[in-house]
Specification:
By secondary structure, the protein is an alpha/beta fold. It is built from 10 helices and 7 strands. 49% of the residues lie in helices and 12% in strands. The structure holds NADP nicotinamide-adenine-dinucleotide phosphate.
């Protein structure tokens, strides 16, 4: 149960939702679900062309004419820019009831081959992107003593996978940050949850696959790839029930459970082949 009296999609009607990384992939699928539910939806990402394409897709969905649906170019790795753009939207409209931090990037590669620049880019976006948006929005939520924050991690946020050292570092950090923030904000009635999706059919995954070592690709062949629409549906179901750790598929939940009770069993499925 969350403290916000939100239990089903229908309760999203008239709520205000801010989504970072809302122009593509999982973020866009979540934006679509929010529009269909009658929420006011604001998406934030960098590329104007992708934002405009996403916006026209959202505006084509059946919605009430009073619903506000807008898109803003914002690089969440830049704290000053994020503060200005989000504050301006809050001043023009209102502070969000729900913040979905979805923007993120994966650049796989073996530790010995990966550049410091690539590693830093993942930490900057996956960790600081979330911290920046939270830093601007949390004071508004604590003030009105309600709100929901969802931070996107990954199955790499609880499972250290070969080929993903820096990505895992960033996504474990998201889980740690979210768990601490959850405890910190609970007295204010603000819910914090964390999303750990499996491989999901998105432009991000397509890009990621281009630089994925072949050993990683071979290991992942056994894993199911899901659609962003399914991730969104499963996520909202858990989010609106007030769940903290959201692992949207059965396989993912099984991996999460096994890793906690018997990591050795899981080792067999995720070990790097002999070199
Ligand atoms: N897809 C998967 O298999 C998978 C699995 C586990 C976890 N995840 C996580 O789920 C989240 C969404 O993944 P996805 O695959 O849907 O991603 P995606 O298809 O690559 O979409 C990423 C979104 O984030 C935006 N973005 C990127 N850099 C940004 C920045 N600096 N500031 C603001 N927005 C930025 C992108 O737009 P611009 O480029 O225009 O800014 C885009 O809207 C990420 O956190 C990812 O790590 C994904």
């Amino acid at each position: 149960m969350n403290h916000n009296n939100l239990k089903t999609f229908a309760d999203l009607k008239d709520k205000t939702v801010f989504i970072t990384g809302g122009s593509e992939g999982i973020g866009l699928a979540m934006a679509e679900d929010c529009v269909r539910s009658g929420a006011h939806v604001f998406i934030f990402s960098r590329n104007q062309t992708k934002l405009q394409q996403a916006l026209s897709r959202l505006l084509k969905l059946p919605h009430d004419p009073n619903q506000i649906i807008e898109a803003y170019s914002c690089d969440v790795t830049d704290f000053n820019q994020t503060t200005k753009i989000i504050q301006d939207v809050i001043t023009k409209h209102k502070a969000p009831d729900i913040l979905l931090n979805v923007a993120g990037i994966a650049k796989p590669g073996f530790f010995q081959d990966q550049s410091i620049e690539d590693m830093r880019q993942m930490v900057d976006l996956n960790v600081f992107g979330i911290i920046h948006a939270c830093k601007v929005i949390v004071p508004h939520m604590t003030k009105k003593k309600s709100g929901i924050i969802l931070n996107t991690s990954s199955m790499c946020g609880f499972l250290g996978l070969f080929g993903y050292t820096a990505y895992c570092a960033s996504k474990f950090a998201v889980v740690g940050f979210s768990e601490a923030l959850k405890r910190e904000l609970k007295p204010f009635g603000v819910q914090v949850s964390v999303l750990c999706p499996p491989n999901t059919r998105t432009p991000g995954l397509e890009n990621e696959n281009k630089s994925k070592p072949k050993e990683v690709l071979a290991t992942e062949e056994k894993a199911k790839v899901v659609n962003p629409e399914d991730v969104s549906q499963a996520t909202f179901k858990d989010l609106l029930r007030g769940k903290f750790m959201i692992v949207p598929t059965f396989d993912g939940s099984l991996a999460y459970y096994l890793n906690r009770v018997s990591p050795k069993i899981l080792d067999q499925f995720v070990k790097r082949p002999e070199v």
